[in-house]
């Protein structure tokens, strides 16, 4: 029987460091963070130099898989598409190290570190970036396609496009709805084109997409709330998942957008490509649900808490005339104002299973906190163990009900650079002591997760979900 994949996840920019070594060129994140004097990932967890040690921890921790991403700016060095052999060599070493340790590599091709030379030409709102991406994926498939059996085209298209083009807290730091829609469309087109390229090569593997999943719940059963829920589902999930899994952009979403925005760049030729090239599996990153009510008043507002330490309600989502997100007073929230709601993962998996009937991987799930990792005693993160236990219980319950969930990845393997939140937002099962030579210190949760992996989930307490 196919074994369930148990592991952890990282992303290149967030853990590798070595930002200008061995021919890696500047990414849009390097450029944006350096130019705005923000905390950067120049060193991050120094995984570039320590990947062997990190993979050894995975093996010793009972993991049988590792989800990581390839840095496009390490692999392609200029606008002509020339390949950097040192970048290729590095990822061969990481993949080989995984395989030698019995760890299935689960490879994300794009986790947000766009080469700056492409951003300067317009990034994701320029259709030429789709062509550049197709060149890059072909290099990736030809180099690694015999060893890697699980590829992900994009990590979280909704999240990086909305953050970069609408909220403005990620590069290229714009606040423009028109460009948000256009960028989203080109990314989903690039996803379909990459699938088509992959299939042409007849490799023995699967290809999917990873979505920032926020299953939608309503505050009550009224018709108004149901309409708000549909709007929220289109906004949060459907334009990625329907497009990737069914090859269709939801018609009510398109109709609504077309009354206000120019969508003439959406062509029948592209839509044919999207229709014919759908994913083999769906990756879901689950941090929290979206609880919504009908829109009442106010302008569109999207506020994300990147500061930590604040009260419930410090993040906010209002989409004018569509819906408003609300906070459940009964729920627990993290220091970054993320709701802790394991039941939402169970319900969410069932929604995706019933709608798309495809294999599912939970490609990210985890919880962050401020943690003092300076001492020598074991870091006690019981709160994380409880969080992970309840979310794994949700997955096992969904599997029992027939959902085809094939793997689970904790975010993150070790502490890493958490985008605009910096390094103080710690997610890892293994601490990285940045004040003390980046030494690795496995937390209590690391040893707990080892038992989960080795028992294939049998030690999970399923009573609370
Ligand atoms: C997901 C991203 C990851 C990771 C995680 C935690 O959206 O795929 O890259 O960062 O969320 O988010 P954050 O670091 O903002 O807390």
UniProtKB/TrEMBL annotation:
GO molecular function: beta-glucosidase activity
Name of the featured protein: beta-glucosidase
An individual GO BP term: carbohydrate catabolic process
GO cellular component, one term: cytosol
Biological classification of the source: Bacteria, Bacillati, Bacillota, Clostridia, Eubacteriales
PANTHER family hit by this protein: GLYCOSYL HYDROLASE (PTHR10353), LP05116P (PTHR10353:SF36)
Keyword terms of this UniProt record: Glycosidase, Hydrolase
Catalytic residues identified in the record: 364
Top-tier EC class: hydrolase
The enzyme's E.C. designation: 3.2.1.21
Protein family according to the UniProt entry: Belongs to the glycosyl hydrolase 1 family.
Parts forming coiled coils: none
The UniProt record lists the keyword Hydrolase: yes
SUPFAM superfamilies according to UniProt: (Trans)glycosidases
Keyword hit for tRNA processing: no
